[in-house]
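Hi R.,

Here's the input for the histidyl-adenosine monophosphate complex you asked about:
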Amino acid sequence: MDIIKGIKGVKDILPEETPRWRFIEDAARRWALCYGYQEIRIPIFELTALFARSIGAATDIVEKEMYTFPDRDGTSLTLRPEGTAGTVRAFIEHNRAADPLPQKYFYLGPMFRHERPQAGRLRQFHQFGVESFGTLSPHADVEVIALLWRLLSDLALPDLTLEINSLGNSDDRTAYKAVLLAFLKQQESHLCANCRRRMYTNPLRVLDCKVPDCRVATESAPRLTDHLSLEARTHFDQVLTGLMALGVPYRLNPRLVRGLDYYCLTSFEITSTHLGAQNAVGAGGRYDGLVETLGGPSVPAIGFAVGLERVSLMLPETSSSSSYECLYYVAAFGENGAKLGLILLDELRRIGISSQCDYRATTLKAHLRQADRSKCRYAILLGDDEAGRGSVILRNLQSKAQEELPLTGLASLLKTRSFPS
Ligand code: HAM
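And here is the predicted structure with histidyl-adenosine monophosphate in place:
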C-alpha cells in the first residue's frame, strides 16, 4: 500500500528536537515578558483581503506565496503568512486603542508561505514576533531592536549582523520611487525578467534582488537615505544614537527594503553568515500607517519576527538540554508485583515524579533491559517477592547500587529525595 507522506517543506519536529525548540521558545517568552510584552494568540487563517491589503498586492508573498482557498460559501481565506496583519486586525477589532497605550504584544506559532523549500526555508515555518503599538518615539525602535539583539545574543547564535535602513515616510518614498524608476529604466536591459516587471509595480524590491546582474546594475542606484525628509532623517539618527548608547552594533544597509509593503522609517534585519542563502534570522520595522490602512485609528507601531527554524539551525549544540528523561522506571512483574506497580506509578505521577514502565515486560530481565533503554535514572524493582515483603528495591541504573525501601509511603519518600527542600 502507498505510504502517505508529509507535505514538501512542511516538517515534523520529532521528540529528539523538541527540547531544542522548547529552549528557544522559553528564551523568547522570557525576553518578551522581561520587556513588558504580553502574549496574543491570533488565528492561523484569516480573510485573504487582510493580507492583500496589509502586506501589499504587489509583493512576492501576496502574488505567489499564500495558501489561499475558498471557504464553503466561497469566501476567500488564507493561511497566515506572517503575524503582523492578524495582530493589527485583532487590535482594531477589539478596540484596543481605547485602552491606554502603548500596548505591546508577542506571539509564537506557525506561518505558511508557498516558497521553494531549502535549508532554512520551509512552507510551514514558525515565528516568534513582537508588535509594539502607540509610540512614535525613536526610543521604541531602539527598544524593539535591542530586544531582538539581546534574545539572539542570549541564545549564543554565531556571527550576527544587525542591518538597518530608513524607508522614510510615505511622501519620501513616493518621491524616491520616481527617481529610482528613472534610474532603473536606464538599466532595464541588464535586469532579470522579474525586476523588469516589478520595477513598475514595486521598484524598491529591485534593490533587494539576489540575481548578480541585477545587483551590479543597481550598484550606483540613488539611495533612499539621500531622499529622506528632515523628520525621517532625525528619527533615523536618533534610533542609531540610541543603539550606540546601548552598545548594539549595527551596519547601515541602504539596500534593505523588506518584502512587505507596510513598512516606513526604520527597517532592520539580523543576518548570519552561518545560514547560507536564507541568511535572515529575524527582521522587522516600523509600520505607522498600517492600523489606519486596515480601518483603525491612527496608531504608530513597530515590531519584528524571528524565524525559529533558522534559530534552531544556528543554536549551538551545547545550549539546549538533551531530551527529557523520566526519573524512575517501575519494573513491576509477577501477579501481585504488577498490580502494585500500577498503583505505585499512579502515586508517583500524581505528586509530579516522572516515571514510566513497559507493560509488555513480564520478567525482571526484560524490565532491566527496557529500564536501561529508557534512560531513566533509577529502576524500582517490584516482583512478587518484594510485594510479599511489602518493599521494593531501588536500583541506581548507572552505579547499579541497590537498596531496599518500604512500599508504604514510597512515593512521598522519593519526593523528599528527588526534590530536597
Ligand atoms: P519577514 O521578514 O517576512 O517579516 O519574516 C521574518 C522572519 O521569518 C525572517 O527573517 C525569517 O527568519 C523567517 N521566515 C520567513 N519566511 C520563512 C520561510 N519560508 N521559512 C523559514 N523561515 C522564514 C515578517 O514576517 C514581519 N511580519 C515581521 C514584522 C513584525 N515586522 C513588523 N512586525
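One thing worth noting: DSSP finds 15 helices and 16 strands in the chain.

Cheers,
M.
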